[in-house]
Specification:
The chain is of the alpha/beta class and about 375 residues long. It contains 17 helices and five strands. A five-stranded parallel sheet has the order 2-3-4-1-5, sandwiched between helices. Strand 3, helix 7 and strand 4 form a beta-alpha-beta unit. Helix 16 packs antiparallel against helix 17. The longest helix is centred in the C-terminal third of the chain and has 22 residues. The protein is elongated and about 75 Å long.
């Protein structure tokens, strides 16, 4: 993994390179970033750069013996630890290393849900157990085999329970040239005893433009499709890549058509839409509703005079401006609430036909009859 293969994060990449070139490499670092920001990929690229035999000014060479082994995740001085679904108390990360390499080589923007799909997880909870902690101590008690550094990348230390305290001594006083790179998403869930012993490398969520550019250049998306997915993903490239696997990714036309049918109170056409939406599949239904929530939010920004904060493609922006002529802020808030409730129930396997019919009727009441649901306070016009 080289820095050039990672979307965006230019400032973080430069900081990591400077740390190496200025010989300011801390023995324990915490790469903290939200899901889909590329924090795991950055940790691997950083480790590869550290061990590269022919470092370039802005990246590892990619062709030396060390880099070739890193690209296959098979370097003898590179170790991984991660949450897994143990079948036995003696299971460690090594028990699942083949699945880990397969998953990571297929998608460096890995999430726990994607990782779960590579394992026989059943209903087990993911964790990093005491056997894995002992294995980490054992692996890192030896000197580097080939490179200058022996490196452990620990993904999601949030899943270290109190057993993680057994690692404190080796984190604080490691063998010479031994590095801990922790890759986390939620700082509050990490043991404070571990947190206090690491140097923080903060990784922001990707911007709309960074995700859009990645989708166009490396995933062969059209300008319109990339813009819509980047808008929906909200800075999460993992989510954006998952959307590429779904058949129906263009939600704008369908969502606006739905609102127009509800505004016109066209019963038969609404029923036809309900039939269509119920057959979209759960993930597409969730993304469709998520798009609707985001689109209504942009309408609210326009109505509030905050048009400079709106990030919609030109065609969608024109539609949103027209929508502001047929609804006010209170109506938009009420519709958004109905969509959020629908998203919640879709995640919990509600019957989609009944659900979309109910939401359609609620939107008809709001847009056509100008009737807001009772019992909830909405922002007055």
């Amino acid at each position: 993994m080289q820095f050039k293969h990672i979307a965006g994060q230019g400032a973080v990449k430069q900081r990591l390179i400077n740390m190496v070139n200025e010989n300011r490499v801390s023995h324990a670092q915490l790469f903290l970033g939200p899901e889909g920001s590329g924090s795991l990929a950055l940790a691997i690229a950083y480790a590869q750069y550290l061990c590269c035999e022919d470092k370039q000014p802005d990246d590892s060479c990619g062709v030396c013996s060390s880099c070739r082994k890193y690209q296959k995740l098979m370097h003898p001085d590179l170790h991984f630890s991660y949450p897994f679904f143990a079948k036995d108390k003696n299971d460690t990360a090594l028990s699942f290393i083949e699945q880990w390499r397969e998953a990571l080589l297929a998608n460096t923007y890995l999430s726990l849900d994607i990782w779960r799909s590579y394992l026989d997880a059943e209903n087990k909870q993911a964790n990093i157990n005491i056997a894995e902690c002992h294995q980490i101590i054992k692996k890192l008690s030896f000197k580097p085999f080939e490179s200058v550094y022996k490196i452990l990348i620990l993904w999601l230390p949030e899943y270290l329970d109190k057993e993680g305290n057994s690692l404190l001594k080796i984190i604080e006083e490691p063998q010479p040239n031994t590095l801990f790179l922790l890759v986390a998403q939620n700082q509050d869930q990490i043991l404070n005893t571990i947190l206090s012993r690491t140097q923080l490398v903060k990784i922001p969520a990707l911007s709309y433009d960074e995700i859009k550019e990645e989708l166009i250049q490396n995933h062969h998306q059209t300008e319109f499709s990339a813009a819509e997915i980047a808008y929906l993903s909200n800075g999460n490239l993992t989510e954006a890549l998952a959307m590429l696997q779904q058949e129906n990714k263009s939600y704008h036309t369908l969502f606006v058509q739905w609102l127009r049918l509800c505004f016109g109170n066209k019963g038969p056409e609404v029923m036809a839409f309900v039939d269509q939406a119920s057959k979209m599949g759960r993930e597409n239904q969730k993304n469709f509703l998520r798009y609707g929530i985001s689109f209504i939010r942009e309408c609210c920004l326009l109505m509030s005079g905050a048009g400079s904060l709106v990030h919609l493609p030109a065609q969608e922006l024109e539609t949103a401006q027209k929508m502001t002529n047929v609804m006010n802020t209170a109506m938009a808030q009420a519709i958004s609430t109905e969509l959020e409730k629908a998203h919640y129930h879709i995640e919990r396997n509600a019957n989609p036909k009944i659900l979309f019919l109910d939401v359609s009727l609620q939107i008809i009441k709001i847009l056509n009859f100008k009737t807001l649901p009772q019992g909830t306070l909405y922002i007055p016009d």
